[in-house]
Fold this protein.
Amino acid sequence: MTESTVPRNPFITVLITLLVAFFSFQVAGSLIGFVLAIPFYPGSISEMVKSLAAPEDDPRMKVPMLIMQGFGSFFGLVLVPALMLRAWRQPLTQFFNKKIPLLPIILTFVILGSFMVMISVVIEWNQNITFPDFMAGAEKWMREMEDKLAETTEFMTHFDSFGQFLIGILVIAVIPAFGEEIVFRGIIQNELYRGTKNIHVAIWVSAIIFSAFHIQFYGFVPRMLLGALFGYLYYWSGNLSLAVLAHFLNNGISVMALYFYQQGKIPIDIEKPEAAPLPAVLSATVLTFVLLFGFKKYYSDLHRLSEK
């Protein structure tokens, strides 16, 4: 984990990071992204502004929405955090300054695959969770917000061409993998560890914050578990690149699965998640923990040898 050369309170740093990232992503980045997307909208600016209220009703908004999303993520989760780190005299390269051997890369691939099978039951449960009657109002509000977000996501990920698919990979997989790992693992997890001196608290609290940042209640628990997985991969390896790789694989495989399903190449629609069969879940659970133990031991042995 990293240490800053500029003294500062770690918990205030976490709060500032979240506020700056959220504002830069949701407000400043989106506004600049809107301006950059104007040349890609075959209509007037006033029409484009009106379509922002319900972009899924205007097919011309697909590429502009992808551009706005991509630039917002890059600006708020990569560029601005990099400038914050520079102000703290911490180069962004500190997170990626170690070579990655082939074995942990392979392990990361297999761990993510088995992990996704393992948590498929959690994904299905979280998607279908219900609340007591006294929370009916809150449940209705969350469902409506989730359905609206699902409509927009489905619109943006229904690719009309291979070019749109490539843009989708960049916007949905590449940029978030780098940006979110820099913010939530590179900065927030490190700062929480610095403040609490307990890595497990740091990993799980940053995972909770990571999931809450996405404002998707019906995907909150599986995303939190993914965040914890990324956190442990980073902590054990000391290299954020493996967390970025796992994050990219998770998002990228989803985008590719959607594209191939739309092309009629595969029969599975991942937008309708169902739990894997119980034997597969149990096998994947055992495999995931065995692989994580192997991953941790590999780096423990590597660190021990480097100290000799």
